[in-house]
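1st attempt posting a full record on here, be nice pls
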Amino acid sequence: MFENSSLQSYSLEEQQFSAWLTTPLGRAYMAQEQIGLAQLMPRAFGHYSVYLGLNAQLSATLESPIKYAMALTANPSLGGHTLMDPHQLPVATESIDLVVMQHVLDMSNNPHQVLREAARIVQTGGRLVITGFNPYGPWGLWRWLRLRRGAPWRAQFLARSRLKDWLALLNFGDFDIKPVYDCSPSKMRIQTWLPWLIQPLSAGYVLCAVKQETRVHLLKTHWARRSVKAKFGLAGATQQNGHTHQKTTGDK
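the predicted structure (as tokens):
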């Protein structure tokens, strides 16, 4: 069993993050994040989807080809369908077509374990969508300089490149990353003609990855081709090199 301290820490963070969502900055940011998620949902397919973390219940209502959706949270005040421990998900292995994690890695003190659990329940060809904060944008700079306190500034702020490396080790690929800003689209007109400069300065991101098929490589057993020579007194076939005795009519 995973230590209850990790679950208690995550539950407390989730509660404080949900309080931040009621602030003007939190509402503006999460509105942009929901737009990014809505753009990815039509690409998903299958039968079952699971939404974890902040806004899980709201995100589970996004339009998607997947019919059955379940929202899991660690705090009952967030209104999820059921409670969960992100470090030990109560879901069967490779049974889910789409898993959406909204800042779950940001709020956990063991993001590796959380990511492994999410990867475990995604079946081959399924999608894993992760939202997080950008450590190299303005928010990351404020966090590094300790200019802001509390949630979300004490979150993990995992870099997109780092997260892609972790996912690649878990057999995920076909990455699609969308930036998330902390303002409305009307204030981001510069993005339409200068995205290469604006995107690295985003406050956060929405990352989508597809679980790849596991390929088994068979190793050729060269040693099996070798003939086994008889040893320890076991007789083997021998060939006589002398002249063969031929029976003639004169022999008796």
